[in-house]
Amino acid sequence: MVYKNNWKYFQEDLILSYLANMLRCEEGQSGPTYDSLQDVIDKKSFRPSVNLSSPTITNISFTLYAILGVVSQSQILTTFLWLRLYWFHEFLIWDPEACDGITKISLPVKDLWTPDIIVYDVDDDVSQACPYVYVNHTGHIRYDRMLRLVSACNLQIFSFPFDIQNCSFTFGSYMHTIKDVRVSPALSFKEMTVNSKRYLQASGEWELVDILGDTNILKFGIDEWDIITFWVVIKRRPILYVVNLIIPSSFLMIIDILSFYLPPHSVDRSSFKMTLILGYTVFLLIMNDLLPSTANGTPLIGIYFSVCLAFMTISLLETVLITCVLHHNSMKYREVPHWVQVLTLNAWFFCPLASGTMTLDVPELRQISQDLREMNTYLSIIRKEDHLQNQWCHVGYILDFLLFRIYLLIITGYALVIICMWCIWMNQ
């Protein structure tokens, strides 16, 4: 019966309906009678509402008890929740004064109607449901469930190991539309966050940042379902990866930089750098399992390692170039090009040797003079070779100094960019 214009009659009708549906309590019994409860149990197949046109409100809250694992390859989040549902049963109402002051009883959940609330975005749901529910004398029911959820989550791993993930849990009725079942949060999102942080255990490398939520309507064809979505924001604890990945890689890069202080004319520098590259490659192979990987992205730390390996390779090529300048036999009789002189030696001048002629009339003196000229020519050639070798050595040292400073400047800039990006993500 609908009352549109007379609110007094409508209130009276509600009071009479309330009194008619109250459970009976007999003398000597603590709580409603078995017969009155049996009447409720017999109606468990029907939604507990006097007026079936009014929906049943289901309040939902949960406590995030544990973050069991995050698998980046398959985009899977595994969590353990304490789920709590509240709803109003219009046929489970009694007067505590007539029932020895009893205000709460527990009943088997299989004997009562329960809302079919499920988690939509879940791959696997391992539920440890409590076999009983708590019923208040006002008809409000509380039902607790422990859920191990394996849910899909769009993981963003670019900022690994300083990444923050935002995963969603969507709760709603499976069969009942918005006309029959409505959902709403039982607690504020801040209260759920505080409770979860208080009881969060076995979180491993993850910590809870916040729990957010919103209610929405799911439309499918002409039907609509009321749903509520919780966003669980979690943050990775990066200390494990900083110690095992970033610090060892930084040490190897520092050793590569310090290797430039080895004598460039020694072949030990090139062999040392080759050994260092080999060691860094083995390090990456060993630590590859610690790096997350997905089909839609690569973490920044993977790019960081690749660039570090590229820098080491460039460093080795620089050493090969300097060694070639210092030790290549084809440069023995070749003068330093003019543009190299301008870039490295600035300017230099050759001072020609003074030569004179002398007329000899005596044959013996003429022979001696010829021998001396040949010896002078030979010594000039040797001095010129030594001078050219010294020039090439000078060019090699200057190039080594210049390329080392450029290499050091590029690495410093690269390190500052990476550190700034990670610091920004850590402070989000």
TrEMBL record:
Q: Which SUPFAM superfamilies match?
A: Neurotransmitter-gated ion-channel transmembrane pore (SSF90112), Nicotinic receptor ligand binding domain-like (SSF63712)
UniProt keyword annotation of Disulfide bond present? yes
A Pfam cross-reference name: Neur_chan_LBD
Any one GO MF term held by the record is: extracellular ligand-gated monoatomic ion channel activity
What are the transmembrane regions? 239-262, 274-291, 303-326, 406-425
Identify the GO cellular component terms for this protein.
postsynaptic membrane
Query: Where does the protein principally reside?
Result: membrane
Per its UniProt entry, which superkingdom is the organism in? Eukaryota
Q: Which UniProt keywords apply?
A: Cell membrane, Disulfide bond, Glycoprotein, Ion channel, Ion transport, Ligand-gated ion channel, Membrane, Postsynaptic cell membrane, Receptor, Signal, Synapse, Transmembrane, Transmembrane helix, Transport
InterPro entries in the cross-refs: LGIC_TM_5-HT3, Neur_chan_lig-bd, Neur_chan_lig-bd_sf, Neur_channel, Neuro-gated_channel_TM_sf, Neuro_actylchol_rec, Neurotrans-gated_channel_TM, Neurotransmitter_ion_chnl_CS
Q: Where in the cell is it found?
A: Postsynaptic cell membrane
Membrane topology, as annotated, equals: Multi-pass membrane protein
Reaction(s) this enzyme catalyzes, per UniProt: Mg(2+)(in) = Mg(2+)(out); Na(+)(in) = Na(+)(out); K(+)(in) = K(+)(out); Ca(2+)(in) = Ca(2+)(out)
Report the CDD domains cross-referenced here.
LGIC_TM_5-HT3
Task: Tell me where in this chain the Neurotransmitter-gated ion-channel ligand-binding domain is found.
Answer: 43-238
Subunit structure, briefly? Forms homopentameric as well as heteropentameric serotonin-activated cation-selective channel complexes with HTR3B or HTR3C or HTR3D or HTR3E. The homomeric complex is functional but exhibits low conductance with modified voltage dependence, and decreased agonist and antagonist affinity. Heteropentameric complexes display properties which resemble that of neuronal serotonin-activated channels in vivo. Interacts with RIC3.
Q: Which family does it belong to?
A: Belongs to the ligand-gated ion channel (TC 1.A.9) family. 5-hydroxytryptamine receptor (TC 1.A.9.2) subfamily. HTR3A sub-subfamily.
Q: What does this protein do?
A: Forms serotonin (5-hydroxytryptamine/5-HT3)-activated cation-selective channel complexes, which when activated cause fast, depolarizing responses in neurons.
Designated name of the protein: 5-hydroxytryptamine receptor 3A
